[in-house]
Design brief:
The protein has a 4-stranded mixed sheet. The radius of gyration is 28 Å and the shape is elongated. The chain is built from 16 helices and 17 strands. About 50% of the residues lie in helices and about 15% in strands.
């Protein structure tokens, strides 16, 4: 085997490894995509059709396949959805690259053509296919939800997503999701504020404290002493008494700092644990206390109340206005916090913990894409129609590249058509017939034509209220092309020395 054949075989080896990961999630694409049941060695089960979740849970060892997973993770972090489209597109680009290798094209020529095609496709989509998003946010949510566990209550869920996003001003970080087993999805609600899955620390604390609050990270619990002190004590009981007496004064001092800032009562939110002496002292003064709050909830409270979180009692300055109460939702108690900031909490209800997990994943995707559309105010017709229209545009311009590069651009166009083709195939229709029909529709000027999953053939996405954020489509194309180029540029696989 000569050196060139060896290099080509390394690329082909990488392509085939990556495509095996792609084939795992390919059947989940579209509103009629199938679910995957994932089981680990302990018997823990996840049932989902969320591409990002499937790829994250897969036991993948091949480095090229890991690169595809990284591209999916990038899509998830940037656009919250569209991971399966990214992976399917990357798989088709890699498969088409292998065919181009067999025709004698060099990897660098293919990469050059793919870069040019990616740039042309994204520019075309943004310039000619975009629609203002203002009136279509609920449709964007419905498009994301369709084919997932949330579909049974699509109208209610999509409206919840829009309400939450508008309340939060389009900032995904200002939206909290709380899962509550029991009831049905239709019982889910949107609450303007933060709901903590907590109770006040002591039963004696007021359940509806007066409207002032303090946020503290730490400093109200015992910490390991660094002092090197020798004591001669007769028994363990004497040691416990000594500890109580020596530390009680400092806890009372710290409690007094809080009492001075909350003279009429109020509530303290603490990230870490709180000493019982502090809790009892505060309770006597009508001050309620919530401790062991997750960092993400502390950040949400900070945004809601418009104040920073103090590191310890030494950093406290002044209390802020706050509306707090401890109430029961379903059969569990929660601390509900209202405030003037733009933070909202979605309370999700479901029959079982397992269904709630899948519901939460679907909600997070839907919230993300609605935030994306709300912020950028641009959407395109969904159902793969934008990809197919971009493919036709690339074919019309491929000759501009000239030489062998135009073969790579045409291969890129073929890969773009794989998105509507896979959606049709997963719905039980012939992918080739669907693509031929869609080409005719788009050439006739129907730029929103996509696969008809009910009857086969084509239908118009805008009439069916199927919309996607333009940033999601552009990022999917860019992520898929970048990971493909990265894999194609690897001409050898070498074992490296361990550390």
């Amino acid at each position: 085997m000569n050196e060139n054949e060896s290099n080509t075989s390394a690329v082909v080896h990488n392509i085939r490894a990556a495509k095996r990961a792609v084939n795992t999630v390919k059947t989940t694409l579209g509103p009629m995509g199938m679910d995957k049941m994932m089981v680990d060695a302990t018997g823990s089960v996840i049932v989902t059709n969320d591409g990002a979740t499937i790829l994250q849970e897969l036991d993948i060892s091949h480095p090229a396949a890991k690169m595809v997973v990284e591209a999916a993770n990038t899509q998830e972090s940037m656009c919250y959805d569209g991971t399966t489209s990214t992976v399917v597109l990357a798989g088709e680009l890699l498969g088409n690259s292998e065919l181009l290798f067999n025709k004698g094209l060099h990897a660098n020529i293919i990469c050059r053509g793919y870069r040019k095609a990616s740039k042309w496709a994204t520019e075309h989509i943004e310039a000619t296919l975009t629609i203002p998003a203002e009136e279509h946010l609920a449709m964007v949510a419905k498009t994301s939800i369709t084919g997932k566990a949330l579909e049974s209550s699509v109208e209610h869920v999509s409206q919840l997503c829009v309400d939450a996003v508008k309340t939060a001003g389009g900032e995904y970080e200002r939206i909290r999701v709380l899962c509550q087993p029991g009831g049905s999805l239709d019982d889910s609600s949107c609450f303007s504020g933060v709901v903590l899955h907590k109770e006040f620390m002591l039963p004696a604390m007021p359940t509806n404290p007066t409207g002032k609050a303090l946020l503290i990270n730490t400093g109200l619990s015992d910490s390991k002493s660094d002092d090197n002190v020798q004591l001669n004590l007769a028994s363990a009981a004497e040691y416990q008494q000594y500890r109580r007496q020596s530390s009680r004064d400092q806890w009372l001092e710290k409690s007094q700092v809080i009492i001075n800032l909350l003279p009429d009562g109020g509530v303290v939110f603490c990230r870490d644990t709180v000493n019982e002496v502090v809790a009892a002292t505060l309770a006597k003064q009508g001050i309620s206390l919530v401790h062991r709050i997750p960092e993400s909830d502390m950040t949400a409270l900070s945004k809601l109340l418009g104040t920073s979180v103090s590191h310890s009692t030494d950093d406290l300055t002044e209390a802020v206005d706050c509306d707090v109460e401890c109430k029961q939702i379903g059969d569990m108690k929660y601390v509900v916090v209202r405030g003037g900031g733009e933070v909202t909490t979605l309370i999700l209800r479901g029959a079982t913990k397992q269904t709630l997990d899948e519901t939460e994943r679907g909600f997070e995707d839907a919230l993300g894409v609605v935030c994306l559309a709300y912020t950028n105010n641009q959407v395109v017709a969904g159902g793969g129609s934008a990809y197919l229209n971009a493919a036709l545009y690339l074919r019309s311009r491929a000759a501009e590249a000239g030489g062998r590069e135009q073969m790579a651009i045409e291969a890129f166009a073929d890969a773009l058509e794989s998105i509507p083709a896979t959606i049709a195939e997963n719905a039980g229709h012939d992918p080739l017939d669907t693509i031929l029909t869609l080409r005719n529709e788009h050439m006739a000027g129907h730029t929103d034509a996509g696969p008809d999953i009910e009857n086969g053939g084509a239908c118009y996405m805008l009439q069916c209220d199927v919309y996607e954020p333009v940033d999601l489509v552009k990022q999917a194309i860019q992520s898929a092309s970048e990971v493909t180029i990265s894999i194609l540029r690897i001409d050898d696989i070498i074992g490296k020395r361990g550390e």
